[in-house]
Every structure is written in C-alpha cells, then in structure tokens.
Design a protein that fits this description.
This protein has 171 residues and is α+β, with helices and mostly antiparallel strands. The chain is built from five helices and ten strands, in the order H-E-H-E-E-E-E-E-H-E-E-H-E-E-H. The longest helix has 10 residues.
C-alpha cells in the first residue's frame, strides 16, 4: 500500500541557518551561505555573507538574529540585513570556502538587468477620481506612486536610486 502524506508540504532543501552556524568557528562570521529556494527559482545567484551572529542560546539553538550582507539576484543591498524569522527554515546551504570566490563572482550573461524603471505617477482608481471631480472639476487623473525597497529600481523623473532624492518610501 502506497504512503499517503497528509498536510502541507514544502519545497525547502537544506539545513536551518542555526544548524550550520552552530557548527562553525566564530558562528561562521565571514562565511557565505545560500538559500536554495532563491537559487532554484531565479537564474541570477543569491547569497548571504555572515557579518554578526547573536544567538539566544536556547535549548534547541533555533532563535537569535544574524546580520548579513545580502546579494539577491545579483544585486547587493545597500544596507546590512538582520535575519531573525527565516533562520529556522531548512533552506540554507553553506558554500565551501574553496568555492566562495567562484560562487560570489557574477558572470555578465547570468546577471539580467536588475534595475527597473517604474512610473512616478499612477492612474487614480475610478471611484476616487469621481469623488474628487465632485469637489474639484480640475482634479488630476494621476496620483504620485510610493514604492518600497527603492534600492533595486529607478523611478521616472528622479535621480538614480530613487530613495535618496525623494524620501517617499513607505515604512
């Protein structure tokens, strides 16, 4: 009789980040770790370089925060990122030290155009436009767009990077 699995399944492959870091000297500071889900889903490489580790030293070693420098789809984020919620996912793999230089080197054919240009204004929803036209007949049909994570795209009419010039990012 075949086995029948009941419940939710996942597509994670690897170990939790804490399983990897607890077995390394200095909790793996300076080492490179990759998430298999991102590297299977996208053609560009993604990885984390461990900068600082703060374990909570609980019984199972599953809690704490890890500060990393993140490269997602071939683009490095401008700030260091603190991981705390995703560290328990069994989706991390340690890149061997002798393969780090080759893995972290991005070839031009694998890196697609990561920086996109988005519009600075979007059309207003019809009901909002109708309500504004009741009060003011000359109401504009467009509203300014507010984007999050402006490190990986440009906004039309703004300087390069978008976030430095406008400060209109939502929190």
């Amino acid at each position: 009789m075949p086995r029948v699995f009941i419940g939710r399944t996942h597509d994670l492959y690897g170990k939790s980040l804490w399983e990897l870091l607890c077995n390394l000297k200095d909790f793996g500071v300076g080492r490179v770790v990759k998430r298999t889900k991102f590297n299977q889903r996208y053609p560009e490489r993604s990885w984390y370089r461990i900068i600082n580790v703060q374990p909570e030293m609980d019984e199972e070693n599953r809690c704490g925060s890890v500060t990393v420098r993140r490269v997602f789809r071939g683009v490095e984020t401008p700030r260091d990122v603190t991981l705390s919620r995703t560290t328990a996912l069994t989706d991390y793999q340690l890149v061997p030290r002798h393969e780090e230089a080759q893995f972290c080197q991005l070839s031009p054919e694998r890196v697609t155009e990561a920086v996109r240009t988005l519009p600075a204004a979007l059309p207003k929803p019809p009901l909002l436009l109708a309500l504004e036209r009741l009060e003011d007949a000359n109401a504009s049909a467009e509203m300014p767009a507010v984007y999050r994570n402006q490190w990986n795209y440009n906004v039309q009419g703004r300087t390069e990077g978008g976030a430095a010039s406008s400060g209109s990012a939502a929190s």
